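Please, structure for the following, as tokens.
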Amino acid sequence: MSQALVRIAALWLLGLMLAVAGSIVAVNIVNDTIASPQQPVREYLEALQNGEGEKALGLLRASVPQGNPAMLDGTALQTAAARINGIKYGEAEDRGGSQVMVPIDFTIDGSQLRTEFLLEKSGVEWLFFHKWAFVPAALPVLDVTVVNANEATLNGVPVNMPNGRNSFAVFYPGEYEASLTGEYFSAPPTKATLSGRDAPAAPLNLMTQATDGLKEAVGAKVKEFLDGCADTADKQQKLQPDCPFYHTTNNRVIDGTIDWSISEYPAISIEPFGGRWVVAPLDGKARIKAQQVDLFTGAVTELNAVHDFSFTTRLDVDSATVKVTPLLNY
């Protein structure tokens, strides 16, 4: 009877020891997976990829610096995280004081990058399971400038650019792309990759240019002005009309025969200068045809001459209209 009791007790003891061992293994597994310091990092990256800025900010426990918050939620945030690929979570490295560093390796547009997150123990659950949280810090800031414009597009979202510049609070890691696309002005896209809080991205500088549409609109205004000048000069029969072109001669030109025309219209070049858009000096050629009388011999000959001309303009552009004002020196 006593041997049977001893055998039963041994079995119970063995079972208890196995249960304890199993519990220890289970606790270690949980602490290495869903209760590991990598888990908050996984949840944070998932929040970025889902465009859940409020959740990401809460997990990161980050303060938001002064700046435009347009990149902290929705489409802009999803776009920033969309190009993060091949994420590999490294082993947590002890940093002392109950803090660890969790590295992740990943690629953006084919470039191999690395981000390090600092976390700290924030308590335990059910007596055994560790709780980890990010060490609070401020979000980084991305600076964006644009030449002669008060708006731009950043990660697909229209943003205001007062006096051509703005600063945006951003999450990391991520990629940010700025561009300007308009009817009259545009800038080619430029990108910045932000791999970590302590590795700020270079400023995004948009080099705005006049579009072909604006050049065509200005060219049409200039052509309209020059053709109008030539027509008026014909009606007034003037050798020196109120135009950029004129003709001087010692001969007498027969009234009623003067015919002005533009033989070469100016090429249009528009550049930023002093916070405005300016049209480069406009150079062209005008042809005059007429009959003239030599004052010494009385001979009548045909006048057919081409004159170079040049003038400047003032350009005023808003969202709906293009105004070109010729500036002539008489």
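The two ends are 131 Å apart (CA to CA). The longest strand covers residues 300-317.
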